[in-house]
Design goal:
single chain, 197 residues
Length: 197
């Protein structure tokens, strides 16, 4: 399996997962959107509605052309906007990077990988189905496990705790750094740098 994104001249699609609308803006499930906002600030531009079904921003990151995309659908229907946007920009699944929340990783920890299962994540399940392959990149932002017997579905639809919010800006910044490293130097380099904690 390929471990690096397509050639340097090729565009890369960076997808942040979340639910649209102010009600969900600060939820753990929306961490993909929050990381994309950080990357957009680095690129210097504004998201615009796109016919592929996502809010998009085109620019350059780590020396290559990228398209940032936030699906305008709800999380469990992310696949349509992701595959539609990828098709429009002629980006193969091997050039797609999905940034999402991950329950099985401690809060703030990052894991990057190519391919794999959806681990119960409805956004990933939808994307895999629409792209027709599991072989796209994932940048997983740890949100930790819910306390006590709280339903994981309820947990991810809650805002970050007061304690978590103290480190949130730093963790989002670090996740954006990891995406840049993946785009610029490849998966192995990014894993070696960011697979700590």
């Amino acid at each position: 399996m390929e471990q690096d994104l397509p050639g340097a001249g090729e565009q890369v699609l960076l997808v942040g997962l979340g639910n649209p609308g102010p009600r969900y803006a600060g939820n753990r499930h929306n961490v993909g959107f929050l990381v994309l906002d950080e990357l957009a600030a680095r690129i210097g531009g504004k998201f615009k509605a796109h016919k592929g079904g996502a809010e998009v921003l085109e620019g350059h990151l780590a020396g290559r052309r990228v398209v940032l995309a936030k699906p305008r659908s709800f999380m469990n229907l992310s696949g349509g906007p992701v595959s539609g946007t990828a098709r429009f920009y002629k980006i193969p699944p091997s050039g797609v990077v999905v940034i999402h929340d991950e329950l099985d990783i401690p809060y703030g920890a990052l894991r990057l990988k190519l391919g794999g299962g959806d681990n119960g994540h409805n956004g990933l399940r939808s994307i895999t189905k629409s792209l027709g392959t599991k072989d796209y990149y994932r940048v997983r932002f740890g949100v930790g496990r819910p306390p006590g017997r709280m339903d994981p579905a309820d947990f991810v639809l809650k805002d970050f705790s007061t304690v978590e919010r103290r480190e949130l800006a730093l963790n989002l910044d670090r996740c954006a750094d990891a995406v840049e490293e993946l785009v610029g130097k490849g998966l192995t380099a990014a894993q070696n740098t960011f697979h700590v904690g």
